[in-house]
Here is the input.
Amino acid sequence: MKTTLYYFTGTGNSLWAARELARHIPETELVPMAKWIHDGDHIPAPEGRVGFVFPVSIGSPPLLVSAFAEKINLDAAEEIFALVTMGSCGDGAWKHLNRILKKRSYRMDAAYSVKTPTNYLLSGDVLPEDQEIAVISVARSDLDRIAEKITHGDNSFEKGPLLMNIRNSVLHPLLKNRLRSQGPRFRADDTCDGCGTCELVCPTYNITVSGMNRPEWGNACTFCFACINYCPRHAIQSGTKTAARNRYHHPDVSITDMMIQNGRE
Ligand SMILES: Cc1cc2nc3c(=O)[nH]c(=O)nc-3n(C[C@H](O)[C@H](O)[C@H](O)COP(=O)(O)O)c2cc1C
Ligand code: SF4
Ligand code: SF4
Here is the structure.
């Protein structure tokens, strides 16, 4: 059966996870959700198996992923699954996607979460490099196992720890409202050299860099944290703590890969 994987990524984990699945699942095509949303084109209705691969963003899918799920025609899909990349718990994100699909009378058949290095610089520092490598290595084995299940039609909804889910169901609505109403309030400090990388990696075209000037942010953020993590000079800050924190993006996902996702290549 043909498989289409619709992916969205801020810092590469989800694209890498989609590539890992594609290595094991025959006849798999990767399609970037951000490009379709940006181009505003009619999305061809996929046949066969369909997977959504994306990060959890405060217990939900990123806004862009929800917008994509509201639009795509899945009438010809035979099987639908979600794979969420996460720092600690991804259940809220696939449950939210499931609700969107259910409302549209589609049935999700399976959902999985895979722990990957965190990119959420507002809640703490990224992992030290050796720990990042270790987490990616465990994630690779998890993805092998999940790909095996998907290939053999051994569908399941893999749930994270119950207590974590209870805690998140209380905490996340508060955090999400705050982030979405106030925005991440990014700014570039005086180490910015106007290179324009942040503009290129932004999947919602929310950043403008004119000439050698510092970037300006608009109001279309999907809170993916690509800009702050991919800036080569670590010049993007939010609040008072990010200047002292390191940055993360998946080592196998380049700026060019981000530009391809965003329809800039
Ligand atoms: C704004 C924001 C919110 C996040 N919220 C969560 C969360 O609720 N739970 C979690 O486990 N990880 C959370 N993370 C971590 C990411 O989901 C995780 O690092 C993911 O693998 C990033 O994938 P990507 O590289 O494909 O963008 C959050 C990250 C960001 C930037
Ligand atoms: S990526 Fe960083 S250095 Fe380059 S323009 Fe953006 S903020 Fe400035
Ligand atoms: S402004 Fe930054 S965090 Fe917001 S969508 Fe663009 S790259 Fe992602």
